[in-house]
Structure formats: structure tokens, C-alpha cells
User: Which sequence fits this backbone?
């Protein structure tokens, strides 16, 4: 779980060097925040934050909570607030990312706009 916490913290601080150091070179990340786009590899992951910046202004993740979901998976639950770059419409939502770790590297992440679906996918639904 520490690796995912460090990875997310580095992403939020815009510390690309640490993000890429903690990510497997073949990382695959699917973002529900950007119309289910999939980012594969370090180069694509490096472009994820600029893609968020292009779509939104003043975005921030809040209230991160991390839950172990088996031997290799960690579920990140979060709240995000932002404004549409073109529309200026403020939006807030609760989402989640199911991260997978292998050999001390983040190898994948799957985003969810519905925390209940994320808990179910992680095998944590009650």
C-alpha cells in the first residue's frame, strides 16, 4: 500500500520523476475521468496530468483513502472537485482507482466514477 500512497502523493505534487520511478514501464491506466481513455507506458502516463489540465481548471483530489484489496491490489477512494475548462461549470464527485502492484511497481490502475462499483471490482463490497 505504501507504494500506491507514494505514487498518488507524487502525482498530486506534480513530481513526474517519482511517479515514473514507481510505475512499471508498461503501466496501463484507464481513466474514467477522461471518457475511459487508456494510457499505456511511461510516455502516455506522463501525458495524463496535462490531459486533465486541458479538460479542467482548478482540479484537486481530496480525502484520499486507501484500502488493501488482496495481495497485489490497493483501492484508492477519493473526492475530486474541478471546473470544466470550456464551460466553467463546477463539478464534484466521489471516485476510485483500483491499483495493482507487481515487483514493487504500479502496473495498472482502473478508474471508477462510482465507488460502489469500485468496491465490488476490488472484492470489497458488502
Assistant:
Amino acid at each position: 500500500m505504501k507504494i500506491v500512497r507514494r505514487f498518488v502523493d507524487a502525482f498530486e505534487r506534480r513530481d513526474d520523476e517519482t511517479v515514473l520511478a514507481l510505475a512499471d514501464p508498461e503501466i496501463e491506466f484507464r481513466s474514467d475521468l477522461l471518457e475511459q481513455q487508456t494510457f499505456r507506458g511511461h510516455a502516455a502516463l506522463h501525458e495524463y496530468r496535462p490531459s486533465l489540465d486541458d479538460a479542467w481548471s482548478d482540479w484537486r483530489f481530496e480525502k484520499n483513502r486507501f484500502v488493501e484489496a488482496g495481495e497485489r491490489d490497493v483501492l484508492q477512494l477519493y473526492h475530486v472537485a474541478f471546473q470544466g475548462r470550456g464551460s466553467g461549470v463546477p463539478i464534484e464527485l466521489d471516485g476510485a482507482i483500483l491499483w495493482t502492484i507487481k515487483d514493487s511497481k504500479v502496473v495498472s490502475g482502473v478508474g471508477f466514477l462510482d465507488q460502489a462499483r469500485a468496491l465490488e471490482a476490488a472484492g470489497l463490497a458488502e
Notes: The radius of gyration is 14 Å.
